[in-house]
Structure formats: structure tokens, C-alpha cells
Amino acid sequence: MKKIAIAVAKDTMAVRKLTFFNLAKDKVRQLGEISKDKGTTWQAEYDLEYRRKSK
Predict the structure, then answer these.
(1) Residue 45: C-alpha distances to residues 14, 31, 38, 53 (Å)
(2) Model-level pTM?
């Protein structure tokens, strides 16, 4: 499953897109992208992976 969130920063006139990917039961990927041309082109800002803490 993939979920997407869009945020507009008024101070920089940039649009940010956050996409979350379920990689496994205890693992999620978050891809952050930025557009400075109103969403025509996107550039990756970061690519993170989260894992559930082991007990």
C-alpha cells in the first residue's frame, strides 16, 4: 500500500510530496520529494526506512 501527502510551503513557494510505502509487517519507507515548479518536476530530498523497535 502507498499513501501520499502534499504540503505547500508559502515561504519558499515549494511543494513537498511525502510518499509512504509498506515494505513489510514492521518496516515502512518514507520518500520525501520537492517541486519548485508547481509539481511539474520532482526531486528527491530524502529516502528513509523505519523499522519497529525490537523488544
Answers:
(1) 12, 8, 16, 25
(2) 0.77
**Cβ neighbour number for residue 50 with a 10 Å cutoff:** 12
Q: Is the pLDDT of residue 42 over 90?
A: yes
DSSP 1-55: -EEEEEEEETTTTEEEEEEEEEEETTEEEEEEEEESSTTSS-EEEEEEEEEPPP-
Classify 11 as helix, strand or coil.
Answer: coil
Q: Which three cell numbers stand for residue 55?
A: 523488544
